[in-house]
Amino acid sequence: MCCGGRCCVSMTQCFFDYSTSKVLVIRSKSVGTLNRFCQAVVLAYIIGYVCVLKKGYQDTDTVISSVTTKVKGIALTNTSDLGLRIWDVADYVIPPQEENSFFVLTNLNITPNQTQTRCAEVSVDTGLCVCVNMSYCEILVTLCPGVQTGRCIQFSVTEKTCEVLAWCPLEKGNDPPDPPLLAEAMNFTVLIKNSIRYPKFNFNKRNILPHVNSSYLSQCVFNRTTDPDCPIFRLGDIASEAGEDFQTMAVHGGVMGVQILWDCNLDMPESWCMPTYTFRRLDNKDPDNNVAPGYNIRFAKYYKNGGKESRNLVKGYGIRFEIMVFGKAGKFNIVPTLLNIGAGLALLGLVNVVCDWIVLTFMRNRQQYSQEKYAYVGDFGLWWRHMNNVSNSHADSCPHLPEI
């Protein structure tokens, strides 16, 4: 029993008591070296990798982008089908505008003066439309271009083919000219206008930088060493930076990738946020596994000839340029900073667990360390010590109970 307010005072003292763990200091060079090494590794990971390399103190956002392009250049061709002809942007950029890409014509096969009439099928190399009688052409209606009339007619002195209703004369399966007809395309230039936004940080920028004016833009060409800020690119230079020969690629066409990287640290000045350009070929050019190489499209130019509709069919080979924009921005934020600091402190606490395990498992004096580290006290001993302390502290104020 306790007297008066003495019991409340004792309970208040117990409430404000603080218990701490026992600290065992092991004076061992091997254990101390291991402990400091582990701590150094954890600190190097937190400071070097998490904070410096990965910028773990920043909040991040991914880029939102828009791209427009404008190609310029003139080419001259002289062929038996078209004669002397000038090619400008309206002729070789097909279609005039695409989203994040553009196609430039570099080579072509032309089938001129086609009209809708009847003619003999010309696919004699495949043998699909070679015929011997009328019934053969009626059976193979879907295998030959055009709509078959069911007639088997003379194609040449020695061969007959099925007659078709189509745009005649039919296109011949010729290989593209080598060297390419529009070899001048390597000197064409393209202006790439790219605007980006990081919505989380309300940050906007474009690749036409503030110091770029109209006079500079009218004469600059991108060069990684001398003029890296110019957004105008020569097509031949794009292929060269990707490790390709433009003239070889222009024969059958292909697909090129223009990659624009916006990695920005928004804790630094805005002028430090700059685009980085890289180029690579995207289509397959492996000669051992390339059945249909390059890139080509077909389009026609229609006109009236004596009141009758006619057209020039063009099988165009060219290079398709795909513009891909990537980026990530970071800015200081207290939440990821505290999360990474907390994770680092937890790792530092794990160092003690590892060292304790090694000391108590592998060290020569592990039995001694174990006895010093752990102290076992029974419940009775704790109760008896507590009762002695209480009796000594209250002996002068509390009456003794009668002994029985």
From TrEMBL:
Pfam families for the chain: P2X_receptor (PF00864)
Gene3D superfamilies with a match to the protein in the record: atp-gated p2x4 ion channel, atp-gated p2x4 ion channel domain
Subcellular location: Cell membrane; Membrane
Annotated disulfide bonds: C119-C168, C131-C152, C137-C162, C220-C230, C264-C273
GO molecular function, one term: extracellularly ATP-gated monoatomic cation channel activity
Positions annotated as glycosylated: N187
PROSITE patterns: P2X_RECEPTOR
Function text: Receptor for ATP that acts as a ligand-gated ion channel. ATP-gated nonselective transmembrane cation channel permeable to potassium, sodium and calcium. Activation by extracellular ATP induces a variety of cellular responses, such as excitatory postsynaptic responses in sensory neurons, neuromuscular junctions (NMJ) formation, hearing, perception of taste and peristalsis. In the inner ear, regulates sound transduction and auditory neurotransmission, outer hair cell electromotility, inner ear gap junctions, and K(+) recycling. Mediates synaptic transmission between neurons and from neurons to smooth muscle.
PANTHER family: P2X PURINOCEPTOR, P2X PURINOCEPTOR 4
Family according to the record: Belongs to the P2X receptor family.
Protein name (database record): P2X purinoceptor
Highest classification ranks of the organism: Eukaryota, Metazoa, Chordata, Craniata, Vertebrata
